[in-house]
Each structure stands twice: as structure tokens, then as C-alpha cells.
């Protein structure tokens, strides 16, 4: 990428890192991927990142405090940290997740879904400066989480779901927090 000097991708899953390496590492020399926990990675590097982006990570973490301590070790003052997390704000969505845990062998059992205010408070309690949050994923999220076959049949419904999400995203957060699957949090580090 011309705008990013260096990109480092960390994931606990060897399988996901291998997919990333296959798809992106050959494009440029400033992209690096590592299969490792952030706790181990933060103990091995002295590099400070100006932006940390996490998608669906926090709800898999067993020790929130240790995890965020590790994130803070690899950031400097005013680094931006962006988290996209599933949230528990709607009993129907929570129930659907519980059903999926029981019927989908690939769906992780060690997930903990928190409410938006719980995540916000947790981030602030661990020394991060809250900037803002917004809700995300109202209709499209279920399409993104499961493989629908044959996929060609679901292109139109998926596009309609994405359009619906875009339109619903224009409604204020205090309303959409009751119908969202996910929330995006933007915080700054202070070391």
C-alpha cells in the first residue's frame, strides 16, 4: 500500500495467517504476518504502532486486562485503536448466537458478548481514551458469518442487506444499538 509504510497482521490462527500470506504478502515488502498471540508478540517487539485495528477479537479474549496491556505495549501516546466487536444488545440476536454455538461445530464456544457500555467502560478503565463508537451490522452480518450455498443465489439478498445496513446506519446510535450485531469503538492510547 502506498499510504501505509508498514502493515503487520497478527492472528492466533495459523490457518488465517496462511490465507493472508497467500493473498497479500507477495504484493509488497511492507506487509508482514505472524501467527501468534498479541501477548507473545508484544513481548518480542520494540516497534510502536500508530494504528491497531481489530475485528472480532475482544470477545474471544479470556483476560481482558492482560490483552489490553499487551496492546498498550505496542502503541505510543495517541495511537489509534479501532475495534469492531459483536455486542449483546438485543435478546433475539443473543439467542441466535446461542443456537449457532450449539449447531455449528466451527463456531467458537469461548465467546463472551458484552453490551456497548460494558466495552466502552472496560476500554476506559484500562487507560484508553474513548473517542467514539457507532453501531454496525443490522441485516448483513448473518450473511457474512455463514457460507450460503449455492452462493450465486444469495448475491441479490446480500446486496439488499448491505444497502439496508447503510440506510439504517444513518439512524442515531441511541436507537440502532437495540438492533445491531456489532459496534465499532475508536480509542486512543496513552502510555
Structure description:
The chain is of the alpha/beta class. The mean pLDDT is 87. The protein has a 4-stranded mixed beta sheet. The chain has a two-stranded parallel sheet with strand order 1-2. Helix 2 (38-44) runs parallel beside helix 3 (64-73). The radius of gyration is 18 Å and the shape is globular. Helix content is 39%, strand content 23%. The protein has helices at 14-25, 38-44, 64-73, 91-103, 116-125, 141-145, 155-168, 173-176; strands spanning 7-11, 31-35, 49-55, 75-86, 129-136, 182-188.
List the helices and strands and how they pair.
Elements: E1 7-11, H1 14-25, E2 31-35, H2 38-44, E3 49-55, H3 64-73, E4 75-86, H4 91-103, H5 116-125, E5 129-136, H6 141-145, H7 155-168, H8 173-176, E6 182-188
Parallel strand pairs: 1-2, 3-4
Antiparallel strand pairs: 4-6, 5-6
Helix pairs in contact: 2-3
Compact overview of the structure:
This protein has 191 residues and is an alpha/beta fold. 39% of the residues lie in helices and 23% in strands.
Report strand order across the widest sheet.
Answer: 3-4-6-5
- What oligomeric assembly is this protein in? single chain
Instruction: Please trace the helix and strand order, writing H or E for each element.
Output: EHEHEHEHHEHHHE
Q: The biggest beta sheet, please?
A: 4 strands, mixed
Which regions are unreliable across 5 or more consecutive residues at pLDDT < 50?
Answer: none
Q: What is the rounded Rg?
A: 18 Å
Helical proportion, percent range:
25-40%
